[in-house]
TrEMBL record:
InterPro entries in UniProt: ClpP/crotonase-like_dom_sf (IPR029045), ECH/Chromodomain_protein (IPR051053), Enoyl-CoA_hydra/iso (IPR001753), Enoyl-CoA_hydra_C (IPR014748)
Record-linked SUPFAM superfamilies: ClpP/crotonase (SSF52096)
Pfam families: ECH_1
The species this protein was found in: Pseudonocardia yuanmonensis
Family: Belongs to the enoyl-CoA hydratase/isomerase family.
Gene3D superfamilies referenced in this protein's UniProt entry, alphabetically: 2-enoyl-CoA Hydratase, Chain A, domain 1, Lyase 2-enoyl-coa Hydratase, Chain A, domain 2
CDD domains associated with the record: crotonase-like
NCBIfam families: PRK08260.1 (NF006109)
Protein name according to UniProt: Crotonase/enoyl-CoA hydratase family protein
Length: 293
């Protein structure tokens, strides 16, 4: 599969997904949205991929939406007058998908449903959708050159890409509101101090650091257990009562204990590396346990 706006390269079990419009600071387009959704779904089904590192070509990560297109720059159909009922009852209607649903949010949902760990390697400017697309990713690393901004208020629009769900969970509601109210451009250090990124590293070490972290997620680990842990953490942490987590934990423990769990226990007792055979493309039958995403 070829892409116009991305580079998709798998090496040693790690997919490097590179936003590849360097002459335009990797600004976000409808084509990029479609290709990112396809790439995340492809990675979920590809058992050669153990983890994903997302970065940008050139000096930017993603400078936000490409605002140079004619008409509605967000690709929305201004002839419609959508309601919440439309978004509930016609969610998959092509007219709603293309004309009403936020493209950034569709990308975020693709990251959310992905079965592989996702690491953002933010190498430069990450503004607007360039910032919010990183929020569903599991870990964010920033180059010392990174600049991150939730600048929607300056454009007269609102945070998108389901960021009002993700951002408060990462940095807390007060800081999330401060950042979106002010629309300030944050330095890498400010993003670190606020808990948005895990670490700030020299620019020439960013990918090396991201790959090292990805290897820790992949080497010697069951792909099935990792995929389940990722979904369990996101979904269960948003459940209204811990009994919901208990239900899912019970099924996940049951199915892993009779599969890769047997090899894991044997390897532990025999003091040797485990050789797991489970595949993230073939998860237990109770997955997904919610049908609304």
């Amino acid at each position: 599969m070829t892409y116009e706006t991305l580079d998709y390269t798998v090496r040693d079990g790690i997919l490097t997904l590179t936003l590849n419009r360097p002459d335009n600071l990797n600004s976000f387009t409808l084509t990029m949205a479609d290709e990112l959704i396809a790439a995340y779904d492809r990675a979920s089904a590809d058992d050669e991929v153990g983890a994903i590192v997302v970065t940008g070509a050139g000096r930017a990560f993603c400078a936000g939406m490409d605002l140079s297109s004619e008409g509605n720059v967000f690709g929305l159909d201004e002839s419609q007058q959508p309601t919440l009922r439309d978004l509930e009852e016609r969610f998959e209607d092509p007219e709603i998908v293309r004309g009403v649903r936020d493209t950034g949010g569709q990308v975020s949902l693709a990251v959310y449903r992905c079965t592989k760990p996702v690491i953002a390697a933010i190498n430069g400017a990450a503004v607007g959708i360039g910032a919010t697309m990183t929020l569903p990713m599991d870990v964010r690393l920033a180059s010392e050159n990174a600049r991150i901004g939730f600048v929607f208020g300056r454009l007269g629009i609102v945070p998108e890409a389901a960021s009002t769900w993700f951002l408060p969970r990462i940095v807390g509601i007060s800081r999330a509101l401060e950042w979106v109210y002010s629309a300030d451009i944050l330095s890498a250090q400010e993003a670190l101090d606020g808990g948005l990124v895990r670490s700030v590293v020299p620019a020439d070490q960013l990918l090396e650091e991201a790959y090292a972290l990805a290897r820790k997620f992949v080497d010697g680990h069951s792909p099935v257990a990792t995929a389940l842990m990722r979904q369990m953490m996101y979904r269960n942490s948003a459940a209204p009562h811990p009994v919901e987590a208990h239900r899912v934990d019970s099924l996940a423990m049951f199915y892993t204990s009779v599969a890769d769990g047997k090899e894991g226990v044997r390897a532990f007792l025999e003091k040797r590396p485990a050789e797991f055979t489970g595949r993230a493309s073939a998860l237990p039958p109770f997955v997904p346990w919610q049908a609304d995403d």
